[in-house]
Design brief:
With 327 residues, the chain is α/β, with parallel strands linked by helices. It has a domain of 202 residues: Aminopeptidase (3-Layer(aba) Sandwich). Helices cover 29% and strands 12% of the residues. It is built from ten helices and seven strands. The protein has a seven-stranded mixed β-sheet with strand order 1-3-2-4-7-5-6, with helices on both faces. Strand 5, helix 8 and strand 6 form a beta-alpha-beta unit. It is globular. The chain starts with a helix and ends in a 12-residue tail after the last helix. The relative contact order is 0.19.
Length: 327
């Protein structure tokens, strides 16, 4: 039987008490720019809820969005297939059985090449923009240096996306219309789980190229089937990481931890194990389920999807009673 309620009792948290780190948006001073009309049409994300929330697990797929605005494609020097190689293609579909297992799934509809929610709100490369960027913008992060900030300069293999420089106002509008609503929804879902059970587990789901790219620390090396990122034990209790790792190995997958991916902004910002909020990043080797050149699904896609449903089902039995938060 799941022991999440026991963890709540042991934590000393009052029901409804929300950890401050996820309760409010990062505060930045936005410009006074008011767009004449929306850049984005349609919903920014989809929320797939279970009939009954059985466990405090939120599954998120931030990089599987594939709705590309025509204006964005027109501004790009890349063809449609090339730009799609930055996607975590079909990850939302792979985890689509999570709601049937009693947990909520949040999936972005917008592509990561358009705006990346696994970054700080304003990690921007000044070389991409006309004029000087506001002082609150982080222009010096390693992700910006690699061209993969909140508004990416390059796709995953290092090819430049844009024909011309952008205005900061357009970047700000994308962040307002897509980034902020996505994180607001994610915070609400984590807070809901925390309120009802006294703890929450966020599983941030991604896919990765089967071989390290030219900008990666493992360039040219074949990768494991699954990489689990818990920021070296700081974003998620080791028992949870070990449990997920053992499930994957039992299912026949090779796994490693924190190399080459230890977890991004989402795991860093949301993962607060001492407060009963755990964040674990899962990276899935794309060669397991798709042709990386054509993006076509392989026959094994459905087997992997079934195995991920098995992982979700087994999370229902995860015993967290020994993991009382220290507050």
């Amino acid at each position: 039987m799941c022991a999440f309620p026991a963890l709540f009792a042991a934590s000393g948290l009052a029901r409804g008490q929300i950890v401050p780190i996820i309760a409010v948006m990062d505060q930045v001073q936005l410009s006074s720019f008011e767009p004449a009309e929306a850049l984005w049409r349609g919903p920014a994300f989809a929320v797939h809820r279970p009939r009954k929330l059985k466990v405090p697990v939120v599954v998120a797929s931030p990089h599987s969005g594939r709705d590309y605005p025509p204006s964005f494609l027109a501004a790009s020097r890349l063809d449609a297939l090339m730009i799609r190689r930055s996607e975590d293609s079909y990850v939302d579909e792979l985890f689509m059985d999570a709601p049937a297992c009693g947990m909520t799934l949040l999936a972005a509809n917008f592509p990561r090449a358009y705006v990346d929610v696994n970054r700080e709100p304003f990690e921007l490369d000044p070389e991409m923009f006309v004029g000087r960027l506001p002082s609150f913008v982080n222009t010096r992060s390693l992700r910006v240096a690699g061209g993969l900030g909140t508004i990416a300069r390059v796709v995953a293999d290092g090819k430049e996306i844009y024909r011309h420089k952008l205005s900061f106002e357009e970047a700000e509008q994308r962040i307002r219309e897509l980034y902020e609503p996505y994180h607001e929804e994610l915070r609400k879902l984590v807070a809901e789980a925390h309120y009802r059970f006294g703890c929450a587990v966020l599983i941030d789901c991604h896919s990765m190229p089967s071989v390290g790219g030219p900008m990666d620390q493992d360039a040219g090396h074949a990768r494991a089937d699954i990489v689990l990122g818990d920021r070296h034990g700081t974003s998620c209790a080791g028992e949870i990481t070990a449990f997920v790792e053992e499930v994957f190995r039992t299912l026949g997958y090779s796994t490693v931890r924190n190399a080459p991916y230890a977890g991004g902004y989402t795991t860093e910002r949301y993962g607060k194990p001492l407060h009963g909020i755990h964040a674990l990043q899962i990276e899935i080797n794309r060669a397991l389920y798709m042709d990386e050149a054509t993006l076509e699904k392989k026959p094994r896609f459905h087997d992997l999807k079934s195995d991920l449903a098995s992982l979700a089902e087994r999370l229902n039995a995860l015993d967290l009673e020994p993991l009382a938060p220290v507050l």
